[in-house]
Amino acid sequence: MWRYFTSRLLQIPIVLLIISLMIFVLVYVAGDPVAMMLPAEATQKEIQTLRIALGFDQPFYIQFWNYITDLVRGDFGESYKYGVSAIGLVLERLPATLELATASMIMAIIIAVPLGIISALKPNGIIDLFATGLSALGKAIPNFWLGIMLILVFAVNLKMMPVSGTGSWKHIILPAITLGTAVSAEITRLVRSNMLEILQQDFIRTARSKGQKKSVIIFRHAFRNSLVPVITITILQMASLVGGSLITEMIFSWPGLGQLIIQAVYDKDLPIIQAAVFVTAVMILLLNLATDVLYRFLDPRIKYS
């Protein structure tokens, strides 16, 4: 097992190098950011002076080599717009994104797991039909539309929740619901299908014949054996929440990575784009590695080679 995890850890720098190359190439071909950094009345001499100062006059391979050497030292340069360390700005915004992603995932699990279990225990019943219908609806509704509707209903009309920003626990409720609805729908469907399959297994019938309590059969035998695929999708969805909360953060003016990345793309702020994508990629890779660790913890029968 340790050999497997060591090989996985050694793969991370290679993957990050490939991701860094892709980011650099995409930003490189997008055009010269100097034009966005200077006012419209800037002279050609001023533009060329800034290009030389930033190293944009050098060939592609030299620019990429300088980028990689700085990357190894953890230096992504300074933001073209804000004039501060790009990685420092990204790490400053990261906790807000993690807070929103965690709140969304907790909300999704609290709703999805009980709903999926109850649906599996009483298939084709009223609760099951409600849960499956709600799951289909949750997957179909676009996040941006749901966020706007929640603002109109609960913030503008009912005035129960703040419209946007941060400051209290109420500020995170609507963004968490917006971001967690699709995740909750996915987890509900997965818990239901896995529980339905597990409940038909021979060891469940054996447990029932021994007279074990219904709660023991459901949670210790059925639910625990269905956890591996549920954990897989949960962690993958957590990674998608961290990296895919851009629109939700913009709608609710949540001061996380989403707003920062969108503004950086608009301004062609290369250091911030590279730092934000790099940090997000590191978190996703670590979450995938954590999935493998949890697999072995939950099911010792799983072997790694």
UniProtKB/TrEMBL annotation:
ABC transmembrane type-1 domain: which residues? Answer: 94-295
Its annotated compartments are: Cell membrane
Top-rank taxon of the source lineage equals: Bacteria
What InterPro entries does the entry give?
A: BPD_transp_1_N, MetI-like, MetI-like_sf
Topology versus the membrane, per the UniProt entry? Multi-pass membrane protein
Q: Which CDD domains match?
A: TM_PBP2 (cd06261)
Name the residues that span the membrane. Answer: 12-31, 100-121, 142-160, 172-191, 227-252, 272-295
Q: Which UniProt keywords apply?
A: Cell membrane, Membrane, Transmembrane, Transmembrane helix, Transport
Q: Which family does it belong to?
A: Belongs to the binding-protein-dependent transport system permease family.
Q: Which PANTHER family match?
A: DIPEPTIDE TRANSPORT SYSTEM PERMEASE PROTEIN DPPB-RELATED
Protein name in UniProt: ABC transporter permease
Please name the source species: Sporosarcina quadrami
